[in-house]
């Protein structure tokens, strides 16, 4: 993880270093102040006159202490901007994660139990269609229908706290979850179908156990490994997916902050947000790697025997 984080941070910094546009012009602002003396002073202040590796060293050493630098646009510490935006984005991702887990697994179970029938075909077709719609297109459609036309939900914003936040984030969370739940549904269906023909399921049926208990206690339980892994990967990638959703719904989260920072060449903010997304992805996938042996003891036994 440490090695991956170092490599990722260097790639992020190098990409910003190679990006077109001179940040000095944005730092100074007024074109009348673009004198050689002023340009040299700003470059020295932000270490922009030093080689890239030296600049990376300054930035990386600051990151280790929680100092991501100063925002060019907002003239505030980047860490303060992240602290104000991260809770909103995490709330949105958590809400979407609940929706995609409950609905995705539910649809997958229904499709697996009714495999080969009309229900299975309908669910497969619906999830295929859902997976093909870009999130920003779906978000605009949701706003037009449920916010503007029916007025069931607010057009923009993330609410204040408590139920008001849950209410305001319903449409954005659903937009973020629709494409993802299609993937979870398919993985659930396929994993369960593979378990239906296994020996322990046949033994459970032969013992006279009702089918619903066979599905719940033997088929679904044995299929948890791939399902949980896919859910974790989808949730980890959702943080990057908030960029489009937060922009459509006017939510002041990390995703919209990244868009604003890119448009204004606010490189310290872009670097910090991208690094946050990488760290979040690594944390989620690592937690799942640790939890899988607990959810499925067979994984732990295989690791020990290996």
Summarize the structure.
The protein has 306 residues and is mostly helical. It has 15 helices and no strands.
Secondary structure: elements and pairs:
Layout: H1 2-18, H2 23-28, H3 36-45, H4 52-64, H5 78-113, H6 118-132, H7 135-149, H8 163-168, H9 170-196, H10 199-206, H11 211-222, H12 224-249, H13 254-263, H14 267-295, H15 297-305
Radius of gyration: 24 Å
Category by helix and strand content: mainly alpha
Helix share, percent: over 70%
- Let me know the CATH homologous superfamily of the largest domain: MetI-like
Pfam families: BPD_transp_1 (PF00528), BPD_transp_1_N (PF19300)
Family: Belongs to the binding-protein-dependent transport system permease family.
Keywords: Cell membrane, Membrane, Signal, Transmembrane, Transmembrane helix, Transport
Main location: membrane
Q: Would you mind describing this structure in some detail?
A:
- With 306 residues, the protein is an all-alpha fold.
- It folds into 2 domains: 2-64, no CATH class; 85-296, Orthogonal Bundle (MetI-like fold), CATH 1.10.3720.
- It contains 15 helices and no strands.
- The chain has helices at 2-18, 23-28, 36-45, 52-64, 78-113, 118-132, 135-149, 163-168, 170-196, 199-206, 211-222, 224-249, 254-263, 267-295, 297-305.
- The longest helix has 36 residues, at 78-113.
- The protein is elongated.
- The chain starts with a helix and ends with a helix.
